[in-house]
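To close the chapter, one final illustration. This time we ask the reader to focus less on the individual chains and more on the assembly as a whole: which components sit near each other, and how the overall shape emerges from the parts.
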Amino acid sequence: MISSMMVLEGIGVQKWTYILVGLTFALYIGIAIWSRANSTKDFYVAGGGVSPWANGMATAADWMSAASFISMAGIISFAGYDGAVYLMGWTGGYVLLALLLAPYLRKFGKFTVPDFIGDRYYSKTARLVAVFCALLVSFTYVAGQMRGVGIVFSRFLEVNIDTGVIIGMFIVLFYAVLGGMKGITYTQVAQYCVLIFAFMVPAIFISIQMTGNPIPQLGFGSELADGSGTYLLDKLDGLSTQLGFEEYTEGSKSMIDVFAITLALMVGTAGLPHVIVRFFTVKRVRDARKSAGIALLLIVILYTTAPAVAVFARTNMIETVSNKPYEGVPDWFKKWETTGLIGFTDKNNDGRIQYVADVSKNELIVDRDIMVLANPEIAKLPNWVIALVAAGGLAAALSTAAGLLLVISASVSHDLIKKIINPKISEKGELVTARISAVGAVCVAGYFGINPPGFVAAVVALAFGLAAASFFPAIILGIFYKRMNKEGAIAGMIVGIVSMLLYMIKYKLGWFDETLPDKSEWWFGISPEGFGSVAMMLNFIVSISIMKFTPKPPKRVQNIVEKIRIPSGVGKAKRH
Amino acid sequence: MTKNNAKAYWKENIRYVLILLTIWFLVSYGAGILFKDELNKIKIAGFKLGFWFAQQGSMYVFVVLIFVYVRLMNKLDKKYGYDK
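The assembled structure is written out below.
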């Protein structure tokens, strides 16, 4: 027993990473082969017969991307209270989904979001606008994911980022093309298990180390384990003010901006096509509601742990490096310095690390991703835990990328080709087209992963704004307002998405001016990230005003609305 | 008859949705954002209450809200005979 423990201790981080990543990849591929898609219904919505628990787990994995897994705790760690916009924004949207969207879209019972928009608004134009929005949102989002896959590979397996992206492309290609939604759903179930385990294990270890409480959610509100009787959060507030930062629990964004960003993220979540489409896969309307609840429960396990990890990591980091001699820094500091994620310049030549808010005196630059990636090393956890984080990060990035690729391929093969260009295409032909467009989508995503345009990172967060500004109002009005017609909905979607794009180009990318305009020029003090909520309001206002002056929707469409409001009589699901 | 049935069902559904969304708004935008400074004066263990709602409490309430809605609607479906 002791000797085998010694052997385990002896295996390095590198080997552990190869072992764990290899095992999880073998598992994903095995599942993909077992769950091949045989029909378009399998390919688009997994046959419509997925159980609420499996769908909940798949939705959670689909939802939690590399950004949730790797970056979120780090962002919160540096933003303090302000980090709440992501926590509330990326969970609160599920309440809207469960109460306002999922059950009705399941009852409607087609394959894609543009399907709903096209049928409800009885118009090919509406469908085309929806396809355009779906592709725009999904592509901006997926490019970031492929990049995430590349980064995880390069940091932990020491291959270069491009090789990492290509390996990731082949894996995703394999199970998305073979299995379609069915394959993706069951691999995502496995990926959820991997990623949640990988996130929780280090968090629990560190919580015990710092506060003696094994539950991180309680740990970060507890007293420190050093017997000083000080609460962890009080200590961190104290450390932050000492170094010239805002108090950790106060934050620095304006209240209106926090409000607007939270709203844009919530509504955007409820409008993202790759999230919505998941609720087309369950058997009955009641399952759609239940599985939204299960998905949120599983997401919240990670999302309530992340702010605890943020507090542990920030406190640990300040205590380890602040005003300590550079000669004596621990190994992990040197290791991450070579990756360029930590940078130290000794401005005052005293050989010590000054980490302060004042930019002219600050000597330490820390990338926010370090907070999760290096956290186990900072806390001196065993090698297998460090390797586990790599496997978890990959699971998170791959599962989200696969879900997005499916939306893209369905938009092309189903919404464009089957519904608009060639309605006579056979079932078999459509399935082949769907697979080909999935291959095409993976290649495009891979290209952007390898050659990221400078603005991808900036735009990913704005995918939510775009979804909020376009789909959310059109779907809500389509369900809750029988009188809403195609003229109103189309005008609303166009005004919403165009105003969001313009605001983003002006205030986030700065393409209209010589330099990026200052914060003081933002409308109502609302940042580009929060502008989605304003654009959504504009969409609602325009839709309703235009509708007042244009004809009622035909009787046939009003009957559709009445039908989707009643849960019974859902189309047949396929068992598997 | 079925039309009236559907109307009554819809009305009750909307009432549930409005009540639950009010709570949704109050815990997140209310307690976590608008009234956070007032609530921060109250401390429970190491947590300032406004901060806790913003980074923990609101999310727990979200989960509960969905499951409450699931239960309410399953009952409502049965009441109106839409559970088949």
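Residues 2-79 of chain B form one domain. The two ends of chain B are 18 Å apart (CA to CA). With these observations in hand, you are ready for the problems at the end of the chapter.
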